[in-house]
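Worked example 3 (structure in, sequence out).
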């Protein structure tokens, strides 16, 4: 059975892969392919956000069950992920808007910050999922 939390991790991971493909495309000068990947990453991230909010509205807080040295590691990771997930939303919107308005000089300036932060949020989202629901999940 594929859980709602697993779906969210899948969406996060998919966004990260689309971002990596979009970055590769633009580095190769393939602007239209880059555009498709980045719009797809935005769409998948948007679906993720709604799915994530719905899940936590229904389920509430999910505790981390790891003990020992991994606990502070988890909370540092979770804290950086959460702060950057909040910060990245307006950055994504500004970056996308500048590209759609064809203000590419201004788009590039913010995209240099947006892309790695967005990618970090996607990857750490998957890691948090694995730590909470797979690796350190309580035994049934």
């Amino acid at each position: 059975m594929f859980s709602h939390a697993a779906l969210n991790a899948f969406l996060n991971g998919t966004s990260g892969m689309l971002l990596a493909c979009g970055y590769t495309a633009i580095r190769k000068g393939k602007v239209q392919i880059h555009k498709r990947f980045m719009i797809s990453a935005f769409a998948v991230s948007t679906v993720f956000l709604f799915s994530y909010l719905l899940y936590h509205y229904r389920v509430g807080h999910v505790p981390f069950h790891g003990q020992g040295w991994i606990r502070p590691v988890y909370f540092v990771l979770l804290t950086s992920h959460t702060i950057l997930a909040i910060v990245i939303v307006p950055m994504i919107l500004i970056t996308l808007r500048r590209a759609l308005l064809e203000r590419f000089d201004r788009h590039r300036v913010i995209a240099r910050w947006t892309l790695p932060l967005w990618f970090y949020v996607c990857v750490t989202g998957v890691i948090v999922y694995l730590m909470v629901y797979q690796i350190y999940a309580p035994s049934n």
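Notes: The two ends are 15 Å apart (CA to CA). The mean pLDDT is 96.
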